[in-house]
Write a structure and sequence with these properties.
alpha+beta; two-stranded parallel sheet
Length: 402
């Protein structure tokens, strides 16, 4: 006669009873699953991730000369085209690292066409593999991290893991070289363009300066001027002195009008002084207080002096521009001759066994949890099927209470 089982109402708390009653099955299944998981872990390919960290160097700092001058001129216009903010430059570095061009640089630099890892792949497929497995990011500290991940073959031995780890590190460090290569080329191209522009401008400004100096000589000869610079400076000095004295006298006179009654001796004295200074100032405006053979002709002052000052100003501006351009030309020549790295590597990837996925312990723990859940689901489902477990409906609960 078969033993009858009383159906038991299912509850979450009853799960522990299920596990306790079937502990031998659970232990056996877990042991078998662990063996399977370990064998599976040994067989599956492993991923090795290598990381290289970079210090973010500002590109326009290494490209001095005209580019730095234009950058310092303002935050917009031409200056803004030479270099952006630090965050924008870091984002540009990340884009360059994750670009296909950097992957092509790695392909050519490491001669991956002959690598044993890619014997069954075309050139474009190899470049795509490098490109798809490259990840660059800006860390919270401001550093730039280059991460390259590469997988081993199926059933990898220790030599395979070490080889893949070394290859991942080599690619990660080479990507840093790719960034330096493209930034250095950009800097060099900017330097050459600046140098070419400066050379053209030097020719134009020298020609313009020669024309200005020739015109100045003709102008002095035509107007029979001995030293127009000294004459102009003397005239300006007199005008400044007379204008300053007149301005002070005007202030004193206005203050005196407030304090003293009209017709007072002090007020009359200040008014007389103001009139004298006003006459001197008018005299200066007409050609100077003192006239001699070296004085400028009064009637020609508005044209001769103003024209000379315009010519003199233009000549001085051209001289300063030429000095600046000559200095920049030498700086650009020095910059072009330099071959210094633009990117500074803080931490190179060392190439040790850096398996990133799957990790053994998390892999086993996750597998164990899945097996336990599947066993519970199977036992509970089987118990429902056999009628050993039931779920009471709301109507059954109401009837039982009545």
């Amino acid at each position: 006669m078969k033993e009858k089982f009383e159906p038991v109402e299912f509850s979450i708390g009853y799960l522990w009873t299920i596990i306790s009653n079937n502990r031998k099955l659970f232990v056996s299944c877990l042991l078998i699953s662990w063996i399977i998981f370990i064998c599976f872990y040994i067989l599956i390919p492993k991923s090795s991730t290598a990381s290289t960290s970079l210090l973010p160097t500002k590109l326009n700092e290494s490209n001095g000369g005209l580019a730095a001058f234009l950058q310092s001129a303002g935050g917009s216009g031409i200056g803004a085209l030479v270099g952006g903010s630090k965050s924008e430059q870091k984002e540009m570095y990340v884009d360059i690292l994750e670009s296909r061009a950097s992957s092509e640089f790695v392909f050519n630099k490491l001669n991956l066409r002959k690598s044993t890892y890619f014997t069954d792949y075309t050139d474009n497929e190899i470049i795509d593999i490098i490109h798809n497995n490259t990840k660059a990011e800006i860390l919270k500290s401001g550093l730039i991290s280059i991460n390259f991940t590469f997988k081993t073959k199926v059933f990898p031995v220790k030599a395979d893991k070490d080889s893949v780890a070394a290859f991942s590190s080599l690619v990660s460090n080479t990507l840093a070289e790719a960034l330096d290569y493209y930034l250095r080329n950009r800097s060099l191209n900017m330097t050459r363009k600046s140098k070419k522009y400066i050379e053209i401008q030097l020719i134009d400004y020298r020609h313009e300066l020669d024309s200005i100096e020739s015109f100045l000589i003709d102008f002095q000869s035509k107007n029979k001027l001995i030293s127009i610079e000294d004459q102009s400076k003397s005239l300006v000095s007199q005008a400044v002195e007379a204008g300053t004295a007149l301005a002070k006298a005007s202030v004193d006179l206005n203050l005196a009008k407030i304090e003293y009654e009209p017709g007072s001796a002090i007020l009359n004295s200040l008014e007389n002084n103001f009139k004298i200074l006003k006459e001197q100032f008018d005299a200066v405006q007409k050609g100077g207080v003192y006239s001699n053979e070296f004085s400028l002709p009064f009637k020609d002052i508005p044209t001769i002096t103003r024209k000379y000052l315009d010519i003199y100003r233009e000549r001085k501006i051209l001289e300063q521009v030429l000095i600046y351009l000559e200095t920049q030309k030498h700086q650009e020549a020095i910059q072009e001759a330099k071959d210094l790295p633009v990117i500074e590597i803080l931490d190179k990837s060392l190439g040790y066994n850096n398996i990133s996925s799957p990790r053994f312990i998390p892999f086993i723990i996750l597998g164990t949890m899945i097996v336990i859940l599947l066993l519970i689901f199977f036992i509970v489902s089987y118990s429902f099927y056999k009628g050993h477990l039931i779920i009471k409906s709301a109507n059954d609960v109401t009837k039982a209470n009545l």
